[in-house]
Backbone:
């Protein structure tokens, strides 16, 4: 198997540890999986949603996470005094648009996420 480039390593990491975990958490709320007292009332409220509303809830959470990731990556592209190094290389400098790496059929979401995109 071909080794991942620094940009791909970062993409895989952020998709698995931010996007997928966030969506998994929201799905856990729907199934009343979480035992934390601070989440019990919210889970009860969400459990009362009908199927269409539950689908809309997951879509909204996914779009929120995806939008936040895009904005974070765009900010990294625009700011000069913050760098993310992977294997000693600045991933922003290696990409021709780090904020767009997640999208498309060959993007990070398609390659590394367990969850389908809403687009």
Residues:
């Amino acid at each position: 198997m071909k080794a991942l480039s620094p940009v791909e390593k970062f993409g895989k990491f952020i998709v698995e540890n931010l996007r997928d975990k966030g969506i998994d958490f929201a799905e856990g709320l729907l199934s009343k999986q979480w035992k934390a007292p601070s989440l019990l009332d919210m889970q009860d409220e969400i459990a009362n949603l009908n199927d269409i509303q539950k689908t809309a809830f997951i879509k909204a959470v996914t779009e929120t996470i995806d939008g936040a990731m895009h904005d974070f990556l765009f900010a990294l592209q625009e700011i000069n005094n913050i760098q993310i190094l992977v294997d000693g290389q600045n991933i922003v400098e290696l990409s021709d648009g780090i904020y767009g790496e997640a999208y498309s059929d060959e993007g990070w979401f398609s390659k590394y996420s367990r969850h389908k995109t809403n687009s």
Residues 6-112 form one domain. Residues 9 and 86 are 8 Å apart (CA to CA).
